[in-house]
Design goal:
The complex is a heterodimer of chains A (291) and B (663). Chain A has 291 residues and is α/β, with parallel strands linked by helices. Chain A has two domains: 138 residues, no CATH class; 138 residues, no CATH class. Helix content of chain A is 37%, strand content 11%. Chain A contains twelve helices and eight strands. In chain A, strands 1, 2, 3, 4, 5 and 8 form a six-stranded mixed β-sheet that branches. In chain A, helix 9 packs across helix 11. The longest helix of chain A is centred in the C-terminal third of the chain and has 16 residues. Chain A is globular and about 60 Å long. Chain B is α/β, with parallel strands linked by helices and 663 residues long. Chain B has five domains: 123 residues, 3-Layer(aba) Sandwich (Rossmann fold); 177 residues, FAD/NAD(P)-binding domain, CATH 3.50.50.60; 58 residues, no CATH class; 165 residues, 3-Layer(bba) Sandwich (FAD/NAD(P)-binding domain), CATH 3.50.50; 67 residues, Alpha-Beta Plaits (2-Layer Sandwich). In chain B, 28% of the residues lie in helices and 25% in strands. Chain B contains 18 helices and 34 strands. In chain B, the strands form twelve sheets. Chain B has a five-stranded parallel β-sheet with strand order 10-7-6-18-29. In chain B, strands 20-27-21-22-23 form a five-stranded parallel β-sheet. A four-stranded parallel β-sheet of chain B has the order 2-1-3-4, sandwiched between helices. In chain B, a hairpin with a 2-residue loop joins strand 32 and strand 33. Chain B starts with a strand and ends with a helix. The model of chain B has no long low-confidence stretch (mean pLDDT 95). The chains are: A alpha/beta (291), B alpha/beta (663). At the A-B interface, loops of A face helix 16, strand 33 and helix 18 of B. The structure holds flavin-adenine dinucleotide (FAD) and iron/sulfur cluster (4 copies). One iron/sulfur cluster binds next to helix 16 of chain B.
């Protein structure tokens, strides 16, 4: 069992002083609701769990731990390693502050079955790790699906239909900020929406377009950095399909600038931060937007 | 509360014909902070400027908005006006109601409404303006010339003559460029080498000129007055100082199968070679692809015969880093590749040649020592057909060539035809042309001489096909004047091939951030008024790199570029642009996104203790070098958290402008 092995290894690493704390998961209020948790002692580790409800991506929590004294053991599922790696690219984490165990994953679930993000799994490759704990079953690839299918449907709509689709979806947003707070790309030391000096929040607040503006700005800010980890849609209490917004950007960038997966490989210029002679001309981008 | 003055210009009728300027001035009187608003026929004139200065004094203005032409035109003018009246020049905003309004509207109410909106948005921005102080930066008194053709040589000579140091970086083993390959030159028919080589020698003997041959510019950073260039001097495996250019090595080298680039590959040269007898520097170079010693260690003959001990098989590329105040692009051209034009049969027939190849075939130093012999069998050709506009003036959609006219071909073909008829009167010469274009001093007279005096047969029409039938080149074309299809059996066909920018031009353009047109010719800052300057400050253009031209035009432009360079290098200091970016460390994530987009490499990172309300920690934060930043603003729009901001164009100022337009 991966969970037992994980626990055993974490206890060893705590005991021999390699790490000061362990970032993992613990049971939550409901059966299907496991949450991220920090364990500092063997005693605390009794609450550690790993299994099909450990969907939460722990990368973002590393930001705070990056400032702590001593190493943190962090457990990353294959897809989570992309987020962690992206944060390394952006110089937000120091690799040496973490001991990474790549954990095998057979697809995560919630009360409704397989998570949206697992229906289009990125594969079973770990972008980085110090060691891997998995088993035969967790190495099997998940069934392949086209993650852009729904985006393509949205693209087929007329401007008006699409506008109404998003107005309707986003009208449910209660601005709880859960999506932003869980997002491993939304990591600004001070978000523009929390900064009165930026003049953005004050402007957004006075119109009924507020939520729309929040999500549009956020989508632009994470364009080229979003790994499509699906956490935003997973945590939204209002079930807003935020991933569709991000995937539209990803699809566009793939088509205009060539296939790109944020968080993959070594640090490089992303499609949004590089200019090349092969870049499509603005006119072409404009035409596409006008379809 | 600020006191703002608004000045609406008529620009004669340029603005006033489509914008009710009085209405605009009147409307602005109601804007917050505006204490005076008026209009005038020509704001940029002495009287207009005085009007602004008087108002500044009289109303004690804190800032002014001039509603006029594009800031590219007169922003500097009005800044100076304000400064002379004691106002900080950066408290001036321009509302562009000409290019962005009157010139694109026809309807007066519409134009007026838009002008009012633009003026309002400029006022909104001005309310957030801060006085800025320009700094200065020292000018490096050295000029880099990229390309050592006649253009580069002439610019270098003129700049050196004014007393400044010049480095010519030439990618080939010798300077001279295409002109060195020509035989005689129109319209005077003087020998090309006879007028070029003295200039090459003069350049090499000048104390101020340093020729870096067989070298390419690899990287350029910095800005006007302060560029740093990295130059890769390729290994030539011969010590430039020791080599005397005696040529003994060339004679002894057993590997004689190298394509002779100087003779347009019409004959071969040894693996160690000097491109031509008058080469500068007159130093041999080893072609590593041909040399047996470098390929498999077997040979070493040249090392043994060289009495100067100049051969060095271990030589490596050398990287030179130097600082320059000005950079001149003189990268010239190459003939277009005509292989893809199947119907002309260039690829299959040795006797279908380009005009530049013909120059070599006719040249006394060429492969046939100046006797015109056809390449296939070395026989004298009796019928020669010239085909004009090959690859020039093409419909862009056909992708068969260039949309532009190469400009020099009509004249050099007349030259070729005339020289051939003069030397070989028994030869028939036919020229297929679309138009004959000969504007230029003594040019039309030259062409008429070819027709009238030398009996060259000019046929108006295009060539459809060239086929080889039993050793004869059957040239099929239309004769538009007689309205018939004709076929001429030729011994030699010469294609007046389009010229195109050197293939390295694009990368040089990217390196220098200087703009190019769709054909990869460098664009000038203004097509009429600033023809030798690139829009990028400190970069100047010389020769065919900027567009097709002949030698007289090239030399004239080279001199003009030199005078601009001299004007720049004569200054000790340049005023820097105070509109530079800066990062607010309290908001900066240290994410490196801005650094990735900065085209000038102005951004670096430091780990710094950041102190602010509730924070005290060491963070990685962005830092902008104000001397390098050009104020392009790329970083500010990339920064997600809004940490990066640009003085003079702050996020707040731009938001205020947008609000004034939209709300
Ligand atoms: C067939 C033919 C006949 C002609 N006959 C005449 C005539 O009779 N009369 C007349 O007035 N004009 C004539 N011309 C035109 C004349 O050749 C040009 O006007 C002239 O050569 C332009 O000089 P240039 O220095 O701009 O370019 P070039 O002569 O092309 O020189 C450019 C130089 O830059 C170098 N270079 C290029 N890229 C780089 C780089 N990245 N780094 C370093 N170096 C680089 C090249 O190696 C070359 O040495 C003729 C042209 C042709 C093709
Ligand atoms: S998590 Fe959902 S409800 Fe909360 S801010 Fe994001 S989109 Fe809105
Ligand atoms: S929404 Fe934008 S500013 Fe806010 S945290 Fe996300 S990326 Fe940063
Ligand atoms: S404005 Fe920003 S991107 Fe532009 S040159 Fe300055 S630092 Fe670089
Ligand atoms: S983009 Fe903004 S947050 Fe990121 S390093 Fe630059 S200034 Fe800092």
């Amino acid at each position: 069992m991966i969970a037992n092995e994980l626990k055993k290894r974490a206890l060893e690493l705590l005991a021999d002083g390699t790490v000061k704390r362990v970032l993992g998961w613990q049971k939550g209020e409901f059966e299907h609701d496991w949450s991220p948790a920090l364990f500092e002692t063997a005693e605390e580790m009794k609450g550690f769990v790993y299994g099909k409800y450990a969907g939460a991506n722990l990368s973002k929590y590393c930001l705070k731990l990056n400032k702590e004294e001593g190493k943190t053991l962090v457990m990353l599922k294959p897809c989570d390693t992309y987020s962690f790696n992206q944060l390394l690219h952006e110089h937000r984490l120091n690799r040496e502050n973490f001991y990474i165990i790549g954990v095998g994953c057979k697809g995560m679930e919630d009360q409704n079955g397989l998570l949206m993000k697992c229906t289009c799994c990125k594969g079973k490759v770990f972008e980085l790790s110090d060691e891997v704990i998995d088993d035969e079953e967790s190495r099997q690839p998940m069934p392949e699906v086209d993650r852009f299918e729904q985006v393509a449907k949205l693209e087929q709509m007329t401007h008006q239909e699409r506008f109404e689709f998003w107005r309707n979806e986003l009208s449910r947003c209660i601005r709880c900020n859960a999506c932003r707070n869980v997002c491993p790309a939304c990591t600004c030391v001070k978000c523009v929406f929390d900064n009165p000096g930026s003049g953005i929040a004050s402007k957004a607040n006075v119109t009924d377009f507020e939520e729309n503006m929040f999500h549009i700005i956020r989508a632009y800010h994470v364009a080229g950095r979003c790994t499509d980890c699906g956490e935003c849609s997973r945590v939204c209490p209002q079930n807003i399909p935020l991933h569709l917004l991000n995937r539209k950007f990803i699809k566009d960038m793939n088509e205009l600038y060539g296939e790109y997966q944020a968080g993959e490989g070594a640090e490089e210029r992303t499609p949004m931060t590089s200019y090349t002679l092969e870049d499509v001309e603005p006119g072409i981008v404009h035409e596409r937007g006008n379809e | 509360m600020q006191k703002i003055g608004v000045f609406v210009c008529w620009c004669g009728s340029n603005i006033a014909a489509t914008v009710d300027v009085k209405a605009v001035a009147e409307a602005m009187k109601n804007e917050d902070g505006v204490v005076v608003s008026t209009d005038y026929q020509y704001m940029c004139s002495a009287a207009g400027q005085k009007m602004i200065q008087d108002a500044i004094h009289e109303h004690q203005l804190d800032g002014i908005v001039v509603c006029s032409c594009s800031p590219r035109m007169h922003e500097a003018t009005f800044r100076k006006t304000a400064e002379a009246a004691g106002l900080n020049p950066y408290m001036v905003e321009i509302a562009n109601i000409r290019e962005q309004c009157s010139w694109i509207h026809k309807d007066i109410p519409e134009g007026t409404e838009k002008a009012i909106i633009l003026a309002r948005s400029a006022i909104a921005k001005l309310r957030h303006n801060m006085p800025l102080q320009a700094g200065t930066s020292a000018v490096k008194k050295r000029c880099l010339v990229i390309g050592g053709g006649i253009a580069g040589i002439q610019t270098a000579l003129d700049v050196a003559d004014a007393g400044f140091e010049v480095d010519i970086v030439e990618k080939r083993p010798t300077i001279g460029g295409r002109m060195a390959q020509l035989d005689k030159t129109f319209p005077t028919l003087d020998c090309s080498a006879c007028i070029l080589t003295p200039k090459m020698v003069e350049a090499s003997q000048s104390e101020k000129i340093n020729i870096i041959s067989y070298a390419e510019v690899e990287k350029v950073s910095g800005f006007v007055g302060n560029f740093t260039a990295t130059i890769r001097k390729k290994a030539r495996y011969v010590d430039e100082v020791k080599c005397t250019g005696c040529g003994l090595c060339m004679a002894k080298c057993p590997a004689k199968k190298g394509k002779n680039e100087f003779n347009m590959e019409l004959d071969n040269r040894p693996a160690i070679y000097i491109p031509f007898a008058q080469a500068i520097p007159n130093v041999a170079v080893i072609d590593p692809e041909q040399c047996n010693k470098l390929k498999n260690g077997k040979c070493g003959l040249c090392e043994r015969v060289c009495t100067a001990g100049a051969i060095n098989y271990k030589q490596e590329d050398e990287l030179i880093e130097r600082e320059y105040g000005a950079i001149v692009v003189a990268t010239g051209f190459q003939p277009m590749d005509v292989n893809p034009l199947n119907e002309l049969g260039y690829a299959e027939n040795a006797d279908v040649v380009t005009s530049l190849e013909l120059e070599r075939l006719m040249n006394a130093a060429g492969p046939s020592k100046g006797t015109l012999l056809r390449p296939s069998d070395g026989k004298h050709p009796h019928t020669i057909v010239f085909v004009q506009c090959v690859g020039s003036r093409c419909d862009e959609n056909t992708k068969r060539g260039k949309p532009y006219c190469s400009k020099i071909c009509c004249m050099y073909t007349a030259k070729h035809a005339m020289l051939i008829r003069e030397k070989y009167p028994d030869t028939d010469v036919h020229v297929f042309y679309i138009d004959v274009r000969t504007p230029g001093k003594n040019f039309d007279e030259f062409y008429r001489r070819a027709v009238e005096q030398y009996g060259v047969d000019y046929i108006k029409g295009q060539v459809g096909k060239i086929a080889n039938e039993n050793g004869k080149l059957m040239v099929q074309g239309s004769d538009l004047i007689n309205g018939e299809q004709i076929t001429i059996a030729a011994d030699l066909v010469v294609l007046a091939t389009a010229i195109e920018p050197d293939p390295t031009a694009r990368s040089i353009g990217t390196m220098l951030t200087s703009s190019m047109d769709t054909n990869d010719f460098f664009t000038e800052a203004h097509p009429k008024l600033r023809p030798v300057e690139s829009p990028t400050a400190g970069i100047f253009l010389s020769g065919v790199a900027q567009g097709p031209k002949d030698i007289p035009e090239t030399v004239a432009q080279a001199g003009a570029a030199a005078s601009k360079v001299i004007g720049l290098l004569a200054k000790d200091h340049l005023v820097t642009n105070p509109c530079v970016a800066g990062s607010n460390e309290l908001l900066c994530n240290g994410c490196s996104q801005c650094e990735k987009v900065c085209p000038y490499g102005a951004i670096t990172y430091i780990d710094k203790e950041v102190r602010g309300p509730g924070v005290r920690e060491v963070r990685r934060v962005a830092q902008v070098n104000p001397a390098v930043c050009q104020g392009c603003g790329a970083c500010t729009v990339t920064c997600p958290s809004g940490a990066m901001d640009l003085k003079g164009f702050s996020n707040q100022q731009i938001m205020a402008e947008v609000d004034a337009i939209c709300l």
